[in-house]
Amino acid sequence: YNFIELNKEFSESFIKTLRLLNIKNKHNLTDNAFNDILKLYGNNESSLYLIQKRLADFVGIKPIFISMYVNSCCAFTGQFASSERCP
Hints:
The N and C termini lie far apart (41 Å). The chain has 4 helices and no strands. It is mainly α. The chain is elongated and about 45 Å long. It has a domain at 3-62.
């Protein structure tokens, strides 16, 4: 989608929030930090969860959550689904 199409679909405030989401991902900001920044700029009616949900609904992509061990070597999916330790 180009910016003009997004402008028709979303408010200017939401587009700015999407830009902030991009910065969050680019710089590995925590979810709490992101929500605090939203509050700081007066966007109290939104949250990371609501923004991600609205974006997912728009693009039609849903996240898949996979349980992982902290600092593990791989995601235990696919060929590693039955593994109990790093290969």
